[in-house]
TrEMBL record:
Pfam families: Hpt (PF01627). Keywords: Phosphoprotein, Two-component regulatory system. The modification Phosphohistidine is found at H92. Residues 53-146 form the HPt domain. It comes from the Bacteria. Residues 1-31 are annotated as: Disordered. This is HPt domain-containing protein. GO terms for biological process: phosphorelay signal transduction system. GO terms for molecular function: protein kinase activity. Gene3D superfamilies: HPT domain (1.20.120.160). Residues 11-22 have a biased composition (Low complexity).
Amino acid sequence: MPCPAGSRAVPQPQLQPQFKPLANRAEPRPPESVLFDRDILDVEPMLRNFGGFGPTVSMLYALFLENADELSRRLKERLAAGDLDGARMAAHSAAGAARTAGAGRVAGLFASVEEAALRGDMAVARRDAAALDRALADVKILIARI
């Protein structure tokens, strides 16, 4: 829409994303029929909500991975320090993020750590936290296919 005579357009700021894209590749995104292990990563809600694989879904998964790694690290630090309350809070945040991303197994492990921390069961909390590395690695493998 043109500006009225004598007025000037206000320059708009250029927003820079603070995430790194999952991949800079020329080949097309995988078809929506690509099979995923739904216990590890259920992509259907993302596809339904955002109309298929694309830049928004890639950005959201990149953001999830960045946050999940940080929350997992924080959780393990809290457990190593014997801080069950801090571990519970980190696990709670991470479980919600994992559920939103469709990472069911990861969400279940974080939720189990949270419940164990609530019960004061450090052994179970540490056991399930130790399983997070493998579960997150599995999610990363599937997200890399997107």
